[in-house]
């Protein structure tokens, strides 16, 4: 809300679908009554309020949502960090969401992060990478003693990898526009800012050499034969 002499402006920032893509639009509304603009601001704030994340206990109250962002800087032809800076970070800043950033430095780093994560500190975990980083986070949750609660932690997949099947599936289910071979990080960032909590089915596969492994969406299995 911006005030002037006998005039108040309410600035709305929205992302409507324009030409099959979410695009930033700023709308300025002018009022000549302070009470009216306060009522409008209160009404809009109430409409965009997000429900409490399912893993949080009732006595955890934060004035602003807090998200842990895990970025694989080598994913998707090393575009992960750039996609975050250009398409995701601006959305979270506009939405007033606090976030911490962790860049993975080795294989299964996200497993360690998820295993040691303080669940009370965050409302969600966002993975900027392909499907593999999401699987690492899930695997880390599965080896925790409080894994039932940890698995309720909302996960956001920001499509920054070569394979972004989970993000594409979420967009498809939520009727969000997404180009199969293009960039749709903004769409997923908006879902992170205004989440709908959808369940994800996780399965286990037992192998002779690697033991039990978690999986989601699909499993490939094949035989190799000498000819």
Automatic annotation (TrEMBL):
One of its GO terms (molecular function) is lipid kinase activity. Gene3D superfamilies: Probable inorganic polyphosphate/atp-NAD kinase, domain 1. Residues 62-209 form the DAGKc domain. This is DAGKc domain-containing protein. It comes from Loa loa (Eye worm). PROSITE patterns: DAGK. InterPro entries: ATP-NAD_kinase_N, Diacylglycerol_kinase_cat_dom, Lipid_Phosphate_FormReg, NAD/diacylglycerol_kinase_sf. It comes from the Eukaryota. GO terms for cellular component: cytoplasm; membrane. One of its GO terms (biological process) is sphingosine biosynthetic process. Pfam families: DAGK_cat.
